[in-house]
């Protein structure tokens, strides 16, 4: 029997920092958790008495629901923190909010934020486990793990596969987590999309860059289509949506170029008719709904492993407790103060 | 790294284990004349192997194929921080419906009873067995819960400092049961 790889991290922040062995451990553990959701009683008492705070400072349905179900199936208690009703709108800093949550003896903080790096800062400042549920355009590690898990289920391996990621690579945290995970497990990754949305710097991270989808499709074993992030398109990155769909949208016509055993994935939510046509999204090669199902098992494994690691090393501070972040995070200056200063 | 544990007593050798299992199989048959109602559930990982051996003997004696399942109880432990350094969760695989079945939980060593408590909770989440019994190869005493085995291969008084190791050919290369003096530290 081989000794299992240790998991000693109290947080899951990025796939970049994980070793190949740690990623494989997470995927193997997720496989074991799959069975729980198939029972008539979809619950195990592993995290009974633990509290999971879900702090989503950015809209999310799928990821939040998935984390909530994962936590509930592990018997944890859930605390939902919504930005509209939180003190952050009153000007409290993220770190103060996190420390207050810590002071209420919460065990795990699942955090989504539109600024890259926030979960790392919070994780270093508080003792509870922090799980990154997507930070800015940086990483979305659990979605990356879901994609790896789904590919492994479908193709029975990851090493040596050609994976094609198509779309808005520039803004996509899923693309970055996928890239780290896939390259660590030995897949060849090609990123493809309009030049404005595919930074050349992706080559430094180990991906091939291409601007021609039709050329790349025949080589791919797996296609991951990304959502065109309308909410991040303040500047004009593409001339028109019609042109984007014509060049980079995947429809049945373009799929004729691909291998018959191509697996089509999408992290959701799908802009139907834009990056994927409806017949491809619902077609036989699509595993989009399996990704959603697998998401629960993957997140159960993540919540379980970080909690066990944190329980075994109760202090487990991975950095100094107080790094004086408050000084770095600019607080809005009250108007009255500006006035007084000028007087 | 801990120093290797010192072997104190060889409790059972390969023929000894085989005899104990055959006897337990006969005792099971004595109490369950209709084996078709029975299901064996081994606790991963040694318990699963023992359950398979029991099923093999039951088939030899009575010709009935008793279904065998494997239960992983990692998620049912009562203290996360007391878990082994790297708890690895394995899937629970029980290829029969436990509801309305007479289930026998099979494990290698019965000690505090906490594992069996966890196994009973796990089984109850999977359905409603008619009855649950317990079969263990070694009962070493020191119970912390009101749990008693129905079928025992060997009773051994031990001290808390000692550990009882069951090794089975399928997993460890050879069959033996030894009592070890826990390493210092």
Unreliable segments of chain A (pLDDT under 50, ≥5 consecutive)?
316-343
For the largest beta-sheet of chain A, the strand count, sense and barrel status come to: 5 strands, parallel
Which fold name fills CATH's third level, the topology of chain B?
Answer: Rossmann fold
**Total beta strands of chain A:** 9
Largest sheet of chain B: 5 strands, parallel
Give me the strand/helix succession of chain B: EHEHEEHEEEHE
CATH superfamily of the largest domain in chain A: Aspartate/ornithine carbamoyltransferase
Q: Output mean pLDDT of chain A.
A: 87
Description:
The complex is a heterodimer of chains A (343) and B (185). Chain A is an alpha/beta fold. Chain A has 2 domains: 20-139 and 293-321, Aspartate/ornithine carbamoyltransferase (Rossmann fold, 3-Layer(aba) Sandwich), CATH 3.40.50.1370; 141-291, Aspartate/ornithine carbamoyltransferase (Rossmann fold, 3-Layer(aba) Sandwich), CATH 3.40.50.1370. Helices cover 36% and strands 13% of the residues of chain A. Chain A is built from 12 helices and 9 strands. Chain A has a 5-stranded parallel β-sheet, with helices on one face. Chain A has a 4-stranded parallel β-sheet with strand order 2-1-3-4, sandwiched between helices. In chain A, helix 3 packs across helix 4 (118-125), helix 5 (141-155) crosses helix 6 and helix 5 (141-155) packs across helix 11 (288-312). Chain B is of the alpha/beta class. Chain B has one domain (6-79, 87-181): Rossmann fold, CATH 3.40.50. Helices cover 28% and strands 28% of the residues of chain B. Chain B is globular and about 45 Å long. At the A-B interface, helix 1 and helix 11 of A face helix 3 of B.
What are its keywords?
A: 343 residues, alpha/beta, Rossmann fold, 2 domains, four-stranded parallel beta sheet, 12 helices, 36% helix, globular, B: 185 residues, five-stranded parallel beta sheet, three-stranded antiparallel beta sheet, 4 helices
């Amino acid at each position: 029997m081989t000794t299992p790889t240790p998991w000693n991290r109290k947080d899951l922040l990025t796939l970049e920092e994980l070793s190949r062995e740690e990623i494989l451990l997470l995927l193997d553990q997720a496989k074991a958790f799959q069975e729980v959701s198939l029972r008539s009683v979809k619950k195990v008492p592993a995290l009974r008495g633990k509290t999971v705070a879900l702090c989503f400072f950015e809209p999310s349905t799928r990821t939040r629901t998935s984390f909530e179900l994962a936590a509930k199936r592990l018997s944890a208690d859930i605390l939902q923190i919504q930005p509209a009703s939180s003190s952050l709108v009153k000007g409290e800093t993220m770190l103060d909010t996190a420390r207050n949550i810590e002071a209420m003896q919460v065990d795990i903080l699942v955090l989504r934020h539109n600024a890259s790096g926030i979960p790392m800062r919070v994780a270093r400042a508080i003792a509870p486990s922090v799980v990154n549920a997507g930070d800015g355009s940086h990483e979305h590690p659990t979605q990356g793990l879901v994609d790896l898990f789904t590919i492994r289920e479908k193709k029975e391996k990851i090493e040596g596969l050609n994976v094609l990621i198509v779309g808005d690579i520039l803004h996509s945290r899923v693309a970055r987590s996928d890239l780290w995970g896939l390259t660590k497990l030995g897949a060849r990754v090609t990123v493809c999309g309009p030049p404005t949305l595919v930074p050349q710097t992706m080559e430094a991270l180990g991906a091939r860059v291409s601007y021609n989808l039709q050329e790349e499709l025949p080589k791919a074993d797996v296609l991951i289509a990304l959502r065109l992030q309308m909410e991040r398109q303040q500047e004009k990155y593409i001339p028109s949506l019609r042109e984007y769909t014509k060049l980079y949208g995947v429809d049945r016509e373009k799929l004729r170029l691909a291998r018959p055993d191509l697996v089509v994935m999408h992290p959701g939510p799908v802009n139907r008719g834009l990056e994927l046509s409806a017949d491809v999204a619902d077609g036989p090669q699509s595993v989009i709904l399996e990704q959603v199902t697998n998401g629960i098992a993957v997140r159960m494994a993540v919540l379980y492993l970080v909690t066990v690691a944190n329980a075994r090393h109760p202090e487990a501070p991975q950095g100094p407790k107080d790094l004086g972040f408050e000084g770095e995070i600019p607080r809005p200056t009250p108007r009255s103060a500006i006035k007084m200063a000028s007087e | 790294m801990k120093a290797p544990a010192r072997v104190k007593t060889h409790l059972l050798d390969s023929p000894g284990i085989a005899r104990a299992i055959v006897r337990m199989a006969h005792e099971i048959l004595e109490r369950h004349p209709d084996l078709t109602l029975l299901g064996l559930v081994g606790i991963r990982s040694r318990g699963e192997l023992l359950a398979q051996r029991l099923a093999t003997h039951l088939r030899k004696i009575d010709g009935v194929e008793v279904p065998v399942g494997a239960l992983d109880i990692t998620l049912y432990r009562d203290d996360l921080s007391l878990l082994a350094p790297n708890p690895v969760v394995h899937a629970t695989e029980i290829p029969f419906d436990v509801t309305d079945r007479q289930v026998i939980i099979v494990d290698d060593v019965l000690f505090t009873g906490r594992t069996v408590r966890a196994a009973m909770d796990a089984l109850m989440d999977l359905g409603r067995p008619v009855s649950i019994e317990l079969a263990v190869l070694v009962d070493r005493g020191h119970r912390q819960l009101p749990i008693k085995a129905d079928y025992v291969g060997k009773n051994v008084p031990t001290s808390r400092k000692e550990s009882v190791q069951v090794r089975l050919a399928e997993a460890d290369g050879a069959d033996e049961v030894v009592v070890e003096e826990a390493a210092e530290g």
